[in-house]
Design a protein that fits this description.
Blueprint (H helix, E strand, L loop, with lengths): L20 H4 L32 H28 L6 H16 L19 H9 L2 H4 L3 E4 L6 H9 L3 E5 L8 E4 L9 H4 L2 H7 L1 E3 L9 E4 L3 E2 L6 E2 L5 H12 L8 E4 L23 E3 L4 E3 L17 H6 L1 H14 L13 H5 L2
Parallel strand pairs: 1-2, 1-5, 5-8, 8-9
Antiparallel strand pairs: 2-3, 3-4, 6-7, 9-10
Length: 354
C-alpha cells in the first residue's frame, strides 16, 4: 500500500527528520509527498459572524444534541462490530475505552453529560486539572491555544480567553466547517463564559479556513485514556483530534515542537496501551494534567506529519467538507490521485451532510 503523507509548509520546518525515520523510511513509505512547493490556494469559509443576525441558541443546542446522539449511537455500533473481530487493529482500543468509561460511571467520578460512554468523559475535578494546566509555563507563554470543544476542557477554554490569549477551537466533529477563533477583545466580560460553550463558539467565533495564517503555541486535547509512561493516548474513537492535528500541520500552524497537553482524571491513567500497536496518525501527549498532579511524559512516540489520506474512508471524506476541498485542490495542483481507506459506517447525519 502506498503511504501518502501531506507534508507541511516550510514556514514551520520539521525539527528532526531522523526522529521520524521509522515512519518515513522507504520500507514504510514508498512515496512520501512533500507539498511545500504547491502554490498557495484559498479554501474559503464564510467568516461573517453569526451574531450579526439573531442567533437561536435553543435551536442550535437541540440540533447539536440530536447529532451527538446519532454519532454516539453509530460509535456504539462500531464498538460492537470492531470488538467482535479480533483481527481488527482497533479492537484493543475499544477494550481499554470501555473499561475506563465503565469505571468512571461505577465510581461516580463521571460528570455531566452522562453516561460518559462514547464521549470524551467529563470528570470530577476537571476544573482543578484545568487550573493546573494554566499554571504550566507552556500555557503562560502561549499566545494562541488550540483546545478541543468537549465539556471537561471548558475551563481550559475559559482560562485561555480570560488570560487574554487567542482561542482556537474546532467546530464539533468538523460538521459545519473547520476551526473558529475567539479572542477576549471580541467579547464582553459577560459573554466570555458563554463563548466557551459550543453554542457560544458558533455565536461569537470567527470561522477560519486552511489558508489562515496562524501560529498555535499549545494544543490541548481531551482523552479517554492516557499512559503517563509513554504519552500514548486514546480518544473516543472517531479520529477527529488526529484530523485536526494533521490539518494544523498542513497550515504550518504547528510542528513537532508544539506541546500537546491533555487533562484527565487520575483514574484515566493506564499502563496497557501498546505503543507498537498505535497507528501512524495517533497523536501522543507531552504533558498530562490531573486534579492531583502534572506529568511530563517525555514521549518518544513520533507525532503525525500530516494527513494520511489512505487512512480516511470515503464516508469520512464525505462527512467533512473542508477535508474534501483540501484533497481535491491538492490533487488538482499535483496531478496525483490520493488513495482512500476502506469504507466504514458513519452516523446518518454524516451521510446527509454533503
Amino acid at each position: 500500500m502506498e503511504l501518502h503523507v501531506l507534508r507541511i509548509s516550510p514556514a514551520f520546518p520539521f525539527t528532526s527528520i531522523t526522529k521520524h525515520s521509522r515512519i518515513l523510511s522507504k520500507s514504510h513509505c514508498p512515496i512520501s509527498l512533500n507539498f511545500s512547493y504547491i502554490p498557495q490556494f484559498s479554501l474559503k469559509v464564510d467568516s461573517q459572524k453569526r451574531n450579526d443576525a439573531i442567533f437561536d441558541d435553543a435551536a442550535y443546542e437541540a440540533e447539536r444534541h440530536r447529532l451527538d446522539a446519532e454519532a454516539r449511537k453509530a460509535m456504539a455500533e462500531t464498538y460492537e462490530r470492531e470488538t467482535q473481530d479480533q483481527e481488527d487493529p482497533k479492537a484493543w482500543k475499544w477494550v481499554i475505552r470501555k473499561r475506563i468509561w465503565d469505571l468512571m460511571e461505577a465510581q461516580n467520578i463521571a460528570q455531566f453529560p452522562r453516561p460518559v460512554h462514547h464521549r470524551i468523559p467529563n470528570f470530577l475535578g476537571a476544573s482543578v486539572a484545568a487550573n493546573k494546566l494554566s499554571e504550566l509555563e507552556e500555557f503562560k507563554g502561549a499566545k494562541c491555544v488550540k483546545v478541543n470543544p468537549d465539556t471537561p476542557q471548558k475551563q481550559v477554554r475559559f482560562l485561555t480567553l480570560d488570560g487574554g490569549k487567542k482561542l482556537l477551537t474546532p467546530q464539533p466533529r468538523l460538521r459545519t466547517g473547520f476551526f473558529s477563533v475567539l479572542e477576549s477583545s471580541m467579547l464582553s466580560p459577560g459573554t466570555i463564559k458563554e463563548a466557551c460553550t459550543s453554542a457560544g463558539v458558533a455565536k461569537y467565533g470567527r470561522p477560519i479556513g486552511l489558508d489562515e495564517k496562524i501560529k498555535v503555541d499549545l494544543i490541548v486535547i481531551g482523552s479517554v485514556a492516557v499512559d503517563p509512561r509513554t504519552g500514548a493516548r486514546l480518544g473516543k474513537g472517531e479520529g477527529f483530534a488526529e484530523l485536526e492535528y494533521g490539518m494544523l500541520r498542513y497550515m504550518g500552524a504547528i510542528d513537532d515542537s508544539t506541546p500537546v497537553v491533555t487533562s484527565v482524571h487520575d483514574e484515566q491513567l493506564v499502563d496497557d496501551i501498546p505503543v507498537d500497536k498505535l497507528l501512524i496518525h495517533d497523536v501522543p501527549v507531552d504533558i498530562i494534567c490531573t486534579p492531583t498532579q502534572v506529568i511530563f511524559t517525555n514521549t518518544s512516540i513520533p507525532k503525525p506529519q500530516g494527513i494520511y489520506w489512505e487512512k480516511l474512508s470515503p464516508e469520512k471524506l464525505s462527512q467533512i467538507r473542508i477535508l474534501r476541498q483540501l484533497k481535491s485542490k491538492i490533487e488538482q495542483e499535483t496531478g496525483r490521485k490520493f488513495p482512500t481507506g476502506p469504507s466504514e459506517k458513519l452516523p446518518p447525519t454524516a451521510q446527509r451532510r454533503r
